[in-house]
Specification:
alpha+beta; eight-stranded antiparallel sheet; elongated
Length: about 150
């Protein structure tokens, strides 16, 4: 005669762990808490230590690509420049100071993008934008790399 299997406490613990792992995977990989809404946002990108001619090549209304593909783009709303600075150490008195870099500027470009906003990130096409991340910055006649320093929803 075949022995009848009994349900044990260990079986219950295993089932609970499997259900908890499945729920965690669902939430991490696209659960309802991760669904995004489509919106417009303004992204400020800092392009540091560049020649002034790059800023002169940028014009309001330019289409800007924020990735290495052609689908992640926005429209340039404004460009502002400041003299580039670098921190220098004075070994005589042991102090640091900001010194201007001659012939170089920091460019602050504001780009309006159509994006998807989730709890975790703002996504433009397939590019995830977060403050502090570096991103390609390409327009007609120029291509460079910048850092996202501000996001205004």
């Amino acid at each position: 005669m075949a022995d009848k299997k009994k349900w044990t406490v260990i079986d219950t613990i295993i089932v609970i762990l499997v259900v908890a792992a499945a729920a965690a995977a669902y939430m991490m990989l696209g659960g309802k808490g991760n669904s995004g809404k489509d919106a417009k946002a303004e992204i400020v990108i800092m392009i540091s230590n560049q020649v002034p001619e790059l800023a002169e090549a940028m014009h309001e209304g330019d289409n800007i690509t924020l990735s290495l593909t052609e689908k992640d783009s926005g429209v340039l709303k404004s460009v502002r420049t400041e003299t580039a600075q670098a921190m220098a150490y004075n070994s005589i008195d042991g102090t640091y100071s900001n010194e201007e870099i001659e012939g170089k500027v920091d460019i602050y470009a504001t780009v309006e993008v159509d994006c998807s906003i989730t709890d975790y990130a703002i996504t433009v096409g397939s590019t995830v934008l977060k403050v502090g991340t570096d991103t390609p910055f390409r327009g007609k006649g120029y291509a460079t790399q910048g850092y996202v320093i501000e996001i205004n929803e």
